[in-house]
Design a protein that fits this description.
There is one protein chain. By secondary structure, the chain is mainly alpha-helical. It has one domain (20-170). It is 77% helix and 0% strand. The protein has seven helices and no strands. The chain has helices at 13-23, 28-50, 55-69, 71-95, 97-122, 133-151, 156-171. Helix 2 packs across helix 6. The longest helix has 26 residues, at 97-122. It is globular, with a radius of gyration of 17 Å. The N and C termini lie far apart (35 Å).
């Protein structure tokens, strides 16, 4: 069990990722904008990949990654990914693949714009600009699931660790 004297070096990979993400998402409005924007992006990706019947494969790969990072949160994320993949496939089936791909691309861009507005409100750079952008984009859906679970009162253990480690970052001097 992690104690209050632990350092970031003693955190798991997932806890370290949560701290990095959480430190860029301290404003509730920004978090809410991500809770909306990230699923819009993922649905856009699913609509684009559904045009060549890969949405379920993308969902399963994401689910495997998320469950490897955190089994409980990953299970929720897996369910959400499957639902979004089904939604993307339904878009392709009803709109046609070309329209679904264009709509999916617009959703992808629009979801990112929505999140960038959230970061402008918060006054912090997006997590994808503070480190590895690919990692930030791939793990964003799991971060959103974690935020929703925290809002619902779940995974208090992880929330306490993340909050404590972010507080430590807030008091560190900024390097010149």
């Amino acid at each position: 069990m992690t104690t209050t004297t632990d350092t970031a070096a003693e955190l798991s990979t997932w806890e370290t990722m949560m701290v990095a993400y959480g430190s860029a998402h301290q404003n509730r409005t920004n978090v809410i904008m991500h809770i909306i924007g990230v699923p819009v992006i993922v649905l856009g990706v699913m609509a684009m990949t559904a045009t060549f019947n890969a949405a379920i494969l993308v969902a399963l790969l994401g689910a495997a990654l998320y469950m490897r990072l955190d089994l409980q949160l990953g299970a929720f994320a897996a369910a959400a990914l499957v639902l979004l993949a089904v939604g993307g496939q339904a878009m392709a089936a009803t709109m046609g693949t070309s329209t679904a791909a264009i709509t999916g691309a617009a959703m992808f861009v629009g979801g990112f714009i929505f999140q960038f507005v959230g970061h402008a409100i918060e006054g912090r750079k997006p997590a994808l600009m503070n480190g590895n952008p690919v990692t930030a984009m791939l793990t964003a859906p799991l971060f959103v699931v974690a935020e929703l679970v925290f809002f619902a009162g779940g995974r208090h253990d992880l929330e306490v660790i993340v909050t404590r480690e972010i507080a430590k970052l807030e008091v560190l001097p900024v390097a010149a």
